[in-house]
Amino acid sequence: MISIVIRNKNEARALENILSIITNVYAGxxxxxxxxxxxxxxxxxxxxxxxxxRVVTIQDxxxxxxxxxxxxxxxxxxxxxxxxxxxxxxxxxxxxxFNALExxxxxxxxxxxxxxxxxxxxxxxxFKIVEPLKYGLMTGxxxxxxxxxxxxxxxEELLFxxxxxxSERVVNNGFQLLDLNETxxxxxxxxxxxxxxxxKNETISEYLLHKKKFPGVITIILSFIKKVIITNxxxxxxxxxxxxxxxxxxxxxxxxxxxxxxx
Length: 263
What we know:
Blueprint: E1 2-8, H1 12-25, E2 32-37, H2 44-50, E3 54-57, H3 63-73, E4 78-83, E5 86-89, H4 93-102, E6 107-112, H5 116-124, H6 132-135, E7 141-145, H7 146-151, H8 162-172, E8 176-180, E9 183-186, H9 192-209, H10 217-262
Parallel strand pairs: 1-2, 1-4, 2-3, 6-8
Antiparallel strand pairs: 4-7, 5-9, 6-7
Helix pairs in contact: 1-2
């Protein structure tokens, strides 16, 4: 069967959403739910207890460390990794996951399709991931074989993209990764501050993993000037033109509704 591992920090509302759906729609499809909690100060732990989840606390958070802690605690052969903002969709989600595992040997993990680009790529590659560093697992919603994980743990030092780095490592060592035509909803509303932090961590990890050279100071400044003066100005005028079109449409709507009312 499958253990479900959910990463969480102060996401009580999102956690309530995901647990209410999983326990209602997928009861009987999994063995356990483990919450890897990063010292939440809201009601997250109480909510987890109410849904009979096992709570494992992590002190020094990184995505890789939280994933390793969760899989280490799991009892099942396979582990479904989720963030507290990801909800599996469809009553056959777990059934089709098992079917994919049974029909393919040596599978280290499954990525669930969540975009048309992902789906087109999966079809072209017969639903096998062939560029793992670029298109590997997304541990916001992904299945991992505990047997493969026992040999290859997630990198706990990477700030981001630990799932892509792990994907490349297991594929280079003879395992397969699959795309599966099941999906999930990912819902999150980030603040500007958290978006900037995510951008920073994601960019650092991308340049380290892909061994790329980061732009110099002059290039960074020129890029900023271009964005502020040219790109943002174009975006502003597109919005102004769109608002004028909406204004025109409202007058046309008013005219037609007035004409209908007078008939």
